[in-house]
């Protein structure tokens, strides 16, 4: 019999716990490294904001648009879309642009009076060289077709000539005093327009601001003819025969001038002037530009912008086309910036054959077909209508199910019929070459708009194409106009604030400006039904006591409660949205299922700050500026409506005690729902069965690890309400060290930095539609951070994002059969056990794409939409118990590799196939679960099972996180953060090791999205009152800034443009392959030659040797007029040349030194040889001397 000893018991105990201890202390092998990350802006989509210049190449068929921010956009055929920006001092408005026809080059003039030469022979345009005028301001430019000399008009009235190739200023100059001579005694003003005679290049027509027109003889260096217009001149245009030209004026008139000495114009007309009762013509607006083109049939097109009557109610923003006696007025939706007549023939000395007009509007690009009767417009292939209604939020989903894009396209095509008013001819801007790049995953961008609409875009292969448009305004009655200003959001009550899309179940949740939350379900067939409405109040015993101070809230989060007086309660109720009564027709696509109208104190509308849905649980949760609401989307009832203080139970750290003396004692039998006062919900004037809220208060938090914080951290005393900013559904551990039980849980993040949990008890699947879902309030914060919570995400024991479970979408047309999975398989967890087998058989566990806040639910600061990386972890609608909570996957063929999983707030989740093997051992249940929590000031990685913080980082005092997301990239996950100082940081998970920190985007560039519209106040230079504006603004900015999986992201660069970027080094290598070629080889049409008879009798085109006239023989230019600035390539070339020259001289010097050393060595060797020879001779003589002597004779 073995002897019992105490030492043996201890040894046995050590052996039993040793494997578990080793398992708990193992380190996660992180796959991502710093060299995997490179930040680069990729593609820009939308319409250039505030365009200022316009240019067209008639041979290459490329269009260039410059804007006030210094950007140049070059457009060709669909897919050929390049953008570049002027840097440095020239980062300002692009005043003029002109192509070098068929040369693959572009000349631009910026507001700092610098002329730039761009090369577009490569996929990305780049500046070759620049010329900055120092004494004069540039007011116009003119480059004749086929010429290398650019005419530059200035504000002082002078005309300079610049050589395009060298960007050298010519000594030839036309001074204003020589141009006017004795005609005027005062300065004529700036040069407004320049153009040469189409048949005689020696004659240059100059228009001055005062209305003086001068025909200048370049060779004779004198004015040949002068005319004085009665009104100021706006533009000039020659007839192709060169016998006359037309000018447009500020009084709305067009004058025709022959090339003869004549005091008055040959004809003067005001096309849109009306004759009043007195017989006088009414005043008209200026004609800003006029163009004169001719066709082979002899028709002359007179095209101009403006000139409409100035009286009230008259049309404006028009393009007028006059052909013979017919006049056609084309009214535009926006102000006309510029227009260009597109012609087949680039040479102005022949009939140009116009076929279209390109009109640049303030917010659109329109092409008019001149060859079709009625002049219809071409249908634009570009996404120029992105800003049709201002964008209020957006989300970016990568690696979506492959059948989602075709599904959106099919319903978008059926609901949007092609307008018959468009021209049937092909889009005329067809320059460049582009072939769609093959991409292994789909990309979808969803934009929410101010008018309540949502647009779904296919953003794969570097393009942006509209798929489907959803209008939520059809669900509501039109709001009353007399209460338009009773609510801060009532001007735009339908504006979309938050979006959540579960791409696998195809359920969509949308939150609006007035607190409305709408649930949609995707269907391919049309239906007609009523919309169920739930009116949900968020109740609290005394809302006056919600106001308090967060112990570590160093600044306000922007969710300020605006107290409504009792007298205003009627007004606030009137401005609430009302859903239309009766059955509504619902076209194919997303069809409304449920509308939740949430109200706060005095029935005022509340702001929705976070949104989340779990299709597997059948639950939807959304947070407001006051509290939390949970909806059962299967039974369509409200399960919970609770204010934030009640989420803490008896563990509220902020001591918000109601003033009411009738405070309920802490007794189990008196525990009630905070929403028990709600009697019923209204649905189209029909009563809905009263919902019993089953809530269990958990006054004692088992193993709580909320730590008290020092009161000294409370540096300010401000009143702010606590709002729910982040939500996530996940199967998580219920108690500390209880790693055997995974229960459905809702994790909640608040604006005070608290993380709270609610436990969900699901009924069995077969009784899911009849039995209630039980919600248990855990009570007390699990963990607290500084600042408002922006995102949450869950990791498994391998460091991968835990994918969410979902209910797959079913096509109702196919007898409710399950949809065939679009992926080859679904990812399972290394912790896959028989306990979860039944769950996984009914729900596909994958990192599928979802938007809105799945793992960190797109909070108020998180904004926009998010993906559900950890959105849900339970069975498909039933079975509480243990589920696939720690699901992620090992790498293929490996049990410990890190693989990509789902996502977190305001991003999309990736989907992958099964990897790793199925494990059923008991040790797999000991896998840990981590939660990555990001706030405005801190980031923490928390061990859920052991309830302890394992890693943390904290931002500096003056910086805060505007957006933070957990994303998957390559074989791992990381945390991407955009900071208020403009930096973008990437940290590895779960170690929070810094992988990337680079200056990316100043926050000021996104200030157009702010409410104050005056830019963002610098927190270092502001008082606390101004800082409130800062963080309110960044809340809105975070809604239009998105991170997504695979290292992609986007933001609204302007009110009309989306800018995409990437942090993936691997993707940066393929960007050029996805871009289109701008320049293609085209044969230049031959220049018309002067015929014998035309040369004999006149009328043929006369050539001008500009090289002889403007070259070295013209003399040396004044160096103080302009300064040449070599481009980056020339500088690099010069540096390389100088480096090579220095290397050659250095090598030459070394060779010389080596030769000298060799000569010295040779001399030394020769001396040594001579010395050795002398020594040998002396030794021989000494030997001969003593050869015959004996030793004793020495």
From TrEMBL:
Protein keywords: Cell membrane, Coiled coil, Cytoplasm, Exocytosis, Membrane, Protein transport, Repeat, Transport, WD repeat
Low complexity compositional bias, start-end: 822-848, 905-918
Biased composition (Basic and acidic residues): 662-671
Domain V-SNARE coiled-coil homology stretches: 1129-1189
Pfam families per the UniProt record, alphabetical: LLGL, WD40
Highest taxon of the lineage: Eukaryota
PROSITE patterns tied to this protein: V_SNARE
Annotated Polar residues bias: 672-683
Comp. bias (Gly residues): 849-904
Subcellular location: Cell membrane; Cytoplasm
Entry keyword annotation includes ATP-binding: no
Residue segments, region Disordered: 654-684, 813-918
Predominant place of localization: membrane
Membrane topology: Peripheral membrane protein
PANTHER family registered for this protein in UniProt: LETHAL 2 GIANT LARVAE PROTEIN (PTHR10241), TOMOSYN, ISOFORM C (PTHR10241:SF25)
Name of the protein in its database record: Syntaxin-binding protein 5 isoform X6
This protein's encoding gene: LOC117148533
């Amino acid at each position: 019999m073995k002897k019992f000893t105490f030492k043996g018991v201890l040894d046995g105990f050590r052996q039993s716990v040793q494997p578990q201890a080793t398992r708990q202390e193992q380190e996660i092998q992180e796959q991502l490294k710093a060299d995997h990350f490179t930040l680069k802006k990729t593609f820009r989509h939308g319409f250039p904001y505030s365009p200022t210049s316009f240019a067209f190449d008639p041979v290459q068929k490329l269009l260039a648009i410059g804007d006030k921010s210094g950007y140049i956009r070059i457009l060709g055929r669909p897919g050929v879309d390049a953008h570049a920006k002027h840097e440095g001092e020239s980062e300002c408005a692009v005043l003029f642009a002109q192509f070098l026809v068929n040369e693959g080059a572009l000349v631009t003039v910026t507001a700092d009076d610098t002329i730039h030469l761009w090369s577009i022979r490569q996929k990305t345009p780049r500046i070759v060289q620049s010329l900055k005028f120092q004494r004069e301001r540039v007011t116009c430019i003119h480059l004749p077709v086929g010429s290398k000399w650019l005419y530059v008009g200035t504000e002082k009235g002078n005309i300079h000539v610049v050589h395009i190739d060298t960007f050298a200023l010519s000594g030839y100059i036309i001074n204003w005093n020589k141009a006017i001579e004795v005609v005027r005694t005062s300065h004529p003003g700036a040069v407004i327009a320049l153009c040469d005679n189409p048949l005689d290049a020696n004659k240059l027509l100059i228009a001055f601001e005062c209305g003086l027109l001068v025909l200048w003889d370049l060779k004779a260096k004198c004015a040949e003819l002068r005319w004085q217009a009665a009104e100021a001149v706006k533009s000039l245009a020659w007839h192709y025969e060169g016998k006359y030209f037309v000018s447009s004026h500020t009084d709305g008139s067009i004058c025709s001038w022959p090339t003869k000495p004549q005091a008055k114009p040959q004809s003067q007309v005001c096309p849109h002037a009306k004759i009043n009762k007195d017989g006088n013509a009414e005043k008209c607006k200026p004609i800003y530009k006029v163009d004169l083109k001719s066709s082979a049939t002899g028709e002359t097109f007179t095209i101009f912008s403006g000139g409409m009557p100035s009286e009230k109610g008259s049309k404006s923003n028009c393009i007028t086309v006059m052909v013979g006696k017919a006049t056609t007025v084309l009214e535009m939706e926006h102000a006309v910036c510029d227009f260009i007549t597109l012609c087949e023939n680039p040479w102005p000395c022949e009939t140009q054959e116009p076929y279209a007009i390109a009109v640049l509007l303030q917010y659109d690009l329109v092409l008019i077909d001149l060859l079709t009767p009625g002049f219809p417009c071409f249908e634009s292939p570009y996404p120029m209508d992105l800003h049709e209604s201002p964008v209020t939020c957006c989300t970016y989903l990568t690696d979506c199910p492959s059948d989602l894009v075709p599904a959106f396209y099919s319903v978008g095509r059926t609901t949007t019929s092609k307008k018959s008013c468009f021209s049937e001819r092909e889009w005329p801007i067809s320059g460049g070459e582009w072939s769609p790049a093959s991409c292994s995953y789909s990309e979808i961008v969803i934009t929410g708009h101010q008018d309540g609409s949502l647009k779904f875009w296919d953003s794969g292969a570097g393009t942006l194409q509209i798929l489907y448009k959803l209008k939520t305004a059809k669900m509501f009655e039109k709001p009353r106009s007399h209460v338009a200003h009773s609510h801060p959001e009532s001007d735009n009550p339908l504006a979309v604030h938050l979006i959540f899309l579960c791409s696998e179940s195809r359920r969509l949740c949308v939150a609006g400006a007035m607190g409305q939350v709408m649930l949609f379900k995707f269907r391919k067939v049309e239906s007609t039904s009523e919309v169920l409405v739930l009116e949900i109040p968020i109740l609290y015993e005394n809302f006056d006591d919600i106001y308090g101070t967060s112990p570590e809230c160093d600044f306000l989060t922007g969710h300020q409660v605006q107290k409504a007086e009792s007298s205003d309660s009627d007004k606030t109720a009137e401005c609430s949205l009302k859903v239309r009564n009766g059955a509504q027709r619902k076209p194919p696509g997303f069809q409304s299922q449920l509308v939740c109208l949430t109200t706060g104190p005095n029935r005022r509308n509340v702001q929705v700050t976070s949104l989340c849905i779990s299709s597997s649980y059948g639950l939807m949760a959304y947070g407001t500026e006051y509290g939390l609401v949970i909806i059962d989307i299967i039974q369509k009832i409200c399960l919970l409506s609770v204010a934030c203080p009640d989420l803490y139970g008896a563990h509220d750290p902020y001591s918000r005690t109601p003033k009411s003396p009738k405070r309920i004692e802490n007794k189990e039998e008196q525990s009630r729902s905070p929403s028990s006062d709600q009697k019923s919900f209204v649905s189209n004037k029909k009563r809905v069965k009263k919902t019993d809220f089953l809530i269990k208060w958990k006054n004692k938090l088992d193993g709580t690890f909320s730590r008290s914080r020092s009161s000294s951290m409370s540096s300010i005393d401000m009143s702010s309400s606590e709002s729910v900013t982040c939500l996530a559904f996940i199967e998580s551990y219920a108690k500390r060290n209880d790693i055997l039980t995974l229960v459905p849980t809702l994790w909640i993040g608040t604006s005070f930095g608290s993380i709270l949990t609610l436990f969900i008890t699901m009924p069995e699947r077969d009784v899911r539609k009849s039995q209630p879902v039980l919600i248990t309030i855990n009570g007390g914060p699990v963990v607290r951070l500084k600042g408002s919570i922006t995102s949450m995400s869950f990791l498994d024991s391998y460091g991968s994002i835990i994918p969410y479970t979902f209910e797959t979408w079913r096509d109702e047309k196919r007898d409710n059969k399950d949809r065939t999975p679009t992926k080859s398989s679904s990812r399972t967890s290394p912790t896959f056990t028989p306990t979860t087998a039944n769950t996984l058989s009914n729900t596909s566990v994958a990192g599928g794409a979802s938007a809105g806040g799945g793992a960190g639910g797109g909070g108020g600061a998180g904004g926009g939409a998010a993906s559900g990386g950890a959105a849900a972890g339970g069975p498909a609608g039933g079975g509480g118990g243990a589920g696939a909570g720690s699901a992620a996957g090992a790498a293929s063929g490996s049990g410990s590799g890190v693989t990509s999983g789902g996502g977190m707030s305001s991003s999309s989740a990736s989907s992958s196939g099964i990897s790793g093997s199925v494990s059923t051992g008991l040790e797999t249940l000991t896998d840990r679960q981590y939660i990555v929590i990001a706030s405005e000031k801190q980031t923490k990685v928390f061990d859920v099972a052991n309830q302890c913080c394992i890693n943390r980082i904290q931002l500096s005092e003056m910086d805060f996180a505007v957006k933070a997301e957990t994303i998957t990239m390559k074989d791992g996950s990381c945390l991407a953060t955009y900071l208020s100082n403009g930096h973008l940081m990437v940290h590895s998970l779960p170690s929070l090791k810094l992988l990337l920190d680079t200056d990316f985007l100043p926050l000021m560039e996104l200030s157009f999205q702010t409410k104050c519209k005056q830019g963002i106040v610098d927190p270092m230079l502001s008082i606390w009152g101004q800082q409130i504006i800062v963080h309110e603004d960044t809340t809105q900015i975070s809604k239009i800034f998105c991170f997504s999986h695979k290292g992609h992201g986007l933001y609204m660069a302007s009110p009309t443009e989306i800018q995409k970027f990437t942090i993936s080094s691997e993707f940066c290598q393929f960007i050029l392959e996805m871009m289109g070629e701008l320049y293609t080889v085209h044969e230049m049409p031959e220049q018309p030659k002067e015929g014998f008879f035309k040369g004999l009798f006149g009328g043929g085109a006369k050539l001008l040797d500009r090289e002889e006239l403007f070259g070295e023989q013209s003399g040396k230019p004044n160096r103080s007029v302009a300064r040449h600035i070599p481009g980056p390539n020339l500088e690099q070339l010069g540096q390389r040349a100088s480096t090579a020259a220095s290397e050659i001289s250095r090598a030459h010097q070394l060779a010389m030194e080596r030769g000298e050393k060799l000569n010295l060595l040779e001399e030394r060797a020769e001396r040594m040889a001579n010395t050795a020879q002398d020594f040998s001779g002396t030794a021989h003589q000494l030997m001969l001397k003593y050869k015959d002597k004996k030793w004793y004779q020495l």
